[in-house]
Structure formats: C-alpha cells, structure tokens
Design brief:
Elements lengths: L2 E8 L3 E7 L5 E8 L13 H17 L4 E9 L2 E3 L4 E5 L4 E4 L1 H9 L3 E5 H12 L8 E6 L3 E7 L2 E2 L36 H13 L15 H9 L3 H25 L3 E5 L7 H15 L5 E4 L6 H25 L1
Helix pairs in contact: 1-2, 3-8, 4-5, 4-6, 5-6, 6-7
InterPro entries: ATPase_NBD (IPR043129), ROK (IPR000600)
Family: Belongs to the ROK (NagC/XylR) family.
Protein name: ROK family protein
Length: 328
C-alpha cells in the first residue's frame, strides 16, 4: 500500500489540508476553520488546534484509502524557523515560539516539516502553477494578512532572520490604520482581504454613495468585488487604490530582485483584473519593457498544499539519504 504525503496550509481564517501520493498528485483535500486564541493573548502551545489538525489529517488519510503516512509539510504564517520547526511569531494567530513540528510529530508519529506559508505557496506555484518553469519568482498572497515569497534561481529565500518577504509590514505613507503587528499604516492594512474590507467599511461609515451600504452583515472583500462587478464607483476606486499601493512596493522589490514573474494569490486575488490592471499600469509606467510578467496564481487554495507536500518530501528524502550514507 502506498504511503501518503500530507500538505497543510494554515491561514489566519481557514486551514486547508491535502493528501498526495508519492508522485505529488493531490488525492483529497479538506478545509477547516483555524482555531486561534484571542489576539490580545499569545500562546506557545495551541494544543486544541494541534489535536484538531492531527485528527483531520488521519481522517483524510483514511478517506484517501492509504494505510500509512510518509511525512507531513505545513505552511504557517509569520516568522518561521524551518530548521527548528518553530513558529517564532505569527501576529494574526497569536503564536509566540510554538514548537509546531515537534508537537505535530508527537501526534502523528511521522516526520513533520514546517516553513512560512507564503514560501510554501511560492513552492507550489513554482512546481505546479503559474510560476512553473521560471527561475526567479515573487509570489504575493493577499488574505487575512499579506506577505511575499521570493525564489531566486529556484532557491527559496528565508533571509538572515527568517523574515524575508514580510513586505506586508512596510509602512504606506498617509495610512494610519492599526496593524496586528502593533504598528500603524502597514501595507497589509491596505493590500489584503481584510484591508479591502476595512476600506469599504470606512467608505460606508463616511456616507459615501455606494451599493455596499445596502448589503447586510460585515463587508468582506468579496462584497467589494460583487459591487465592482455592478460598476460601483467606490468599489472600483478601492481596488484601484489597493492595486496602485501594492504595485508601488512591488516595483521596488522588482528593481532589487529582478524577477521574471510576479504571482498574486490569496483570497483577494479573486478580484482578477480589478486588482491586476492598476498593478500593471504602475509597472508599465515605471519599468516599461523591463517589467516582469504579472499574473494571478492558478492553484487557488491548493498552492500551499503542493508547496508544503514538496517541502516535506524533499526534506524527508534528504534526511533518509543522509542516514543511509551514515550507515554505509
């Protein structure tokens, strides 16, 4: 019976779990709500979530008809030390020095490897999605928060302190909204699904003329997208502002790293051309023929699963090879 490889993508709102065969073909996947503490608190041991996650992994294994697991890869938001398997700091989850890999290994009984969720998203899009075949890539995810993954010559960049790609905490001039990191005016308070929701909610509160004021319940990024589809002026202006703001930061990143392609992913990327067009306009104006290809991710919420599974399989095979050489 073939052993399964599991890929997990932990998000600020939902966690997606997928199980793959040895050739990294996705067999089954499921999405669950991410259990997290009150954001005014921090935890170094989200035991309830670990228990839920391990139970879902084993259930998925059974559903896929696999007898055993080989290894598990997990993408976790924030600052992650992949070598130690520790989630050092995740502001949107309340994590503080969480021994993620060790705790999940105890529960599952197989090797567990972790890395930052956007780095794993980048791996996924590079092996099976929009960035397949490219050597130099920037992937940006716009979800509860926002960050970037950087691949140079097919190597994922972690940085000297595992903080490479956290562009979401770069300050936007003129913005003063509070960020979960404790600062004000961070890019992710604008260029993220939650940022788009905030801008729309603020527009309604200020009495601006928009059909979004007629929607029941909290305004979400998909609410703004629905309004844009109907030609709502305020919704269109929000996407224009978000796209231009994000583009101004990505132009700088492009001049520094010279990527062949920039992939936009995450929930807010579903806005498609409403978000991409203003980004492309800024790039055309500032970089002209030197601009990289700019596109949306093609794997949806499976990108992080592919990347996490690839991370786990690569590290497992490498450790297995080292052990075999040691024995010899």
């Amino acid at each position: 019976m073939e052993h399964g490889i599991v890929g997990v993508d932990v998000g600020g709102t939902n966690t997606v779990i997928g199980i793959f065969d040895s050739s990294l073909t996705l067999l089954e996947k499921v999405s669950i709500q991410t259990l997290k503490p009150n954001l005014s608190q921090k935890t170094s041991n989200p035991a309830e979530f670990f228990d839920q996650l391990s139970g879902e992994v084993m259930s998925l294994k059974d559903k896929a008809g696999l007898e055993h697991l080989l290894c598990v890869g997990i993408g976790v938001p924030g600052k992650v030390n992949p070598g130690e398997g520790t989630a050092i700091h995740a502001v949107n989850l309340g994590y503080d020095n969480v021994p993620f890999a060790d705790e999940m290994t105890k529960r599952l009984g197989v090797p567990v490897f972790i890395d930052n969720d956007v780095r794993n998203y980048t791996r996924g899009e590079a092996i099976a999605g929009s960035a397949k075949g490219f050597q130099n890539v920037i992937c940006v995810t716009l979800g509860t928060g926002m960050a970037a993954g950087v691949m140079i010559e097919r190597n994922i960049i972690c940085g000297s302190n595992f903080f490479a790609g956290e562009i979401g905490h770069d300050i936007v001039p003129g913005e003063h909204s509070a960020c979960n990191c404790g600062k004000r005016g961070c890019l992710e308070t604008v260029a993220s699904a939650s940022g788009i929701s905030r801008l729309a909610t603020e527009a309604v509160r200020l009495g601006k003329e928009t059909i979004m004021s007629e929607f029941e319940g909290p305004i979400q990024s998909k609410t703004v997208y629905s309004a844009a589809l109907k030609g709502d002026k305020i919704a269109l202006e929000i996407f224009q502002y978000v796209g231009q703001t994000l583009a101004s930061k990505l132009v700088t990143a492009s001049l520094l790293l010279n990527p062949e392609i920039i992939v936009i992913g995450g929930g807010a990327a579903a806005a498609g051309s409403y978000l991409l067009n203003p980004i492309k306009e800024v790039f055309l104006e500032q970089l002209g023929p030197m601009q990289p290809l700019i596109t949306v991710g093609s794997l949806g919420d499976s990108a992080g699963l592919y990347g996490s599974a690839d991370l786990a399989n690569s590290k497992y095979q490498k450790s297995k090879s080292v052990k075999e050489r040691t024995i010899l």
